[in-house]
Amino acid sequence: MIELTDAARSTAGVVALAVVTIESGGWFLLRVVTGRAPATDFQRSFYRAGHAHAGVLVTLGMVCLLLGEATSLTGGWRWLAQTGVLVGAVLLPAGFFLSAAGSGRTRPNRLVALLPLGALAVAAGVVTLGVGLLTA
């Protein structure tokens, strides 16, 4: 059994509570797809992508948080292994939702720049975790 540090336990608690924000995104998405909230085809696709990425990445991020406890990584490397995916779980959905925000938008705004930053955070987190697990 993996013993959680206080930091990992606190992070996991905050992330578990943050799932409510994903649920509220789902409620908004339901309003969009049922026509109760106006959206262009572009916006619908970006909102769907944002919601899907949020749910999947929070789940993967919790797994990475737990598995990071089984590594011998320390300092910034341990932080990256345990929370890189969780940082991506914020940046990627934010990039999808915020770059599509605005009445009648048919193309992303400048906040689309959050997408590659989020992808980089996810990649850095899983690679660091993988190396940490293989070298533990």
Global mean pLDDT: 96
Helical percent range? over 70%
Query: Which sequence of SSEs, written as H and E, runs from N to C?
Result: HHHH
The end-to-end distance, rounded to whole angstroms, is 16 Å
How much β-strand is present in the residues?
Answer: under 5%
Number of domains: 1
* Tally of helical segments: 4
- Low-confidence parts lasting 5 or more residues at pLDDT below 50? none
**Protein structure class:** mainly alpha
Shape descriptor reads elongated
What is the number of beta strands? 0
What integer value in Å does the Rg equal? 17 Å
Q: Biggest sheet: strands, sense, closure?
A: none
Keywords:
single chain; 136 residues; mainly alpha; 4 helices; elongated
Describe the protein's architecture and organization.
The chain has one domain. 76% of the residues lie in helices and 0% in strands. α2 runs antiparallel to α3, α2 runs parallel beside α4 and α3 packs antiparallel against α4. The chain starts with 5 loop residues before the first helix and ends with a helix. Keywords: Membrane, Transmembrane, Transmembrane helix. This is DUF423 domain-containing protein. It comes from Cellulomonas wangleii.
List the helices and strands and how they pair.
Elements: H1 6-33, H2 41-68, H3 75-100, H4 114-135
What's this model, at a glance?
By secondary structure, the chain is mostly helical. It contains four helices and no strands.
